[in-house]
Amino acid sequence: MLPTFETARLSLRPRTMADFDACLAMDRDPDVVKYIAGPWNDASKHEAFLRERIQADFGKGLGYWSIFGRDAKSRFLGWVLLIPYDGLGPRVEIGWRLNRSAWGQGYGTEAAQPFVAHAFEGVGLPEIVADIDARNVASHRIAEKIGMRCMGDIIHGGVPMKSYRLTKQDHR
């Protein structure tokens, strides 16, 4: 069972099939997924991918959490993940995706912060990583605001990325 989290403005709970339609709608916004590889243009593959990700067991303390406003608990803002890197591991990645209506309000940083503590204190991970498309400036800012350090440029899936890392040691 995954924990839930509350921040000053947000409520974060484990993602379930009840969030399927909201996640699907978010992913269908081309601006939301423009820096993220995925089956976004094939409806049946997209739905199967999303269903599999929602129902998967990623291991103790790992998974996806849906983000809602504390004052509007039915308003889906996006999600945060803490899962094995590329779904396989052994490293664990942190990631986030927000509806366009939630951009520019600090929700990404606020939503990701509890998962840094959860990764190190709750799950006992030695590090978390994030590979972010080199053009995705907003996600770079979030990674830096939660304490991650850019380790350099890489190519992942043929796409130029910036590789971020945060160790338990650096988090203290």
What structural class do you assign from the helix and strand content? alpha+beta
Structurally, the number of domains stands at 1
Strands of the widest sheet, in order across it, are: 1-2-3-4-5
Tell me about the biggest sheet? 5 strands, antiparallel
What is the β-strand count? 8
What does it look like?
The protein has six helices and eight strands. The chain has 172 residues and is an alpha+beta fold. It has one domain (5-128): 3-Layer(aba) Sandwich (Aminopeptidase). The strands form two sheets. Strands 1-2-3-4-5 form a five-stranded antiparallel β-sheet, sandwiched between helices. The protein starts with a strand and ends with a helix.
Write a compact overview of the structure shown:
This protein is of the alpha+beta class and about 170 residues long. The protein contains six helices and eight strands. The chain has a five-stranded antiparallel sheet with strand order 1-2-3-4-5, with helices on both faces. A three-stranded antiparallel sheet has the order 6-8-7.
Describe the secondary-structure layout.
Blueprint: E1 5-6, E2 10-14, H1 20-27, H2 30-33, H3 43-55, E3 63-69, E4 72-84, E5 92-98, H4 107-122, E6 127-133, H5 137-145, E7 149-156, E8 159-167, H6 168-171
Antiparallel strand pairs: 1-2, 2-3, 3-4, 4-5, 6-8, 7-8
InterPro entries: Acyl_CoA_acyltransferase (IPR016181), GNAT_dom (IPR000182), N-acetyltransferase (IPR051531)
GO molecular function, one term: acyltransferase activity, transferring groups other than amino-acyl groups
Protein name: GNAT family acetyltransferase
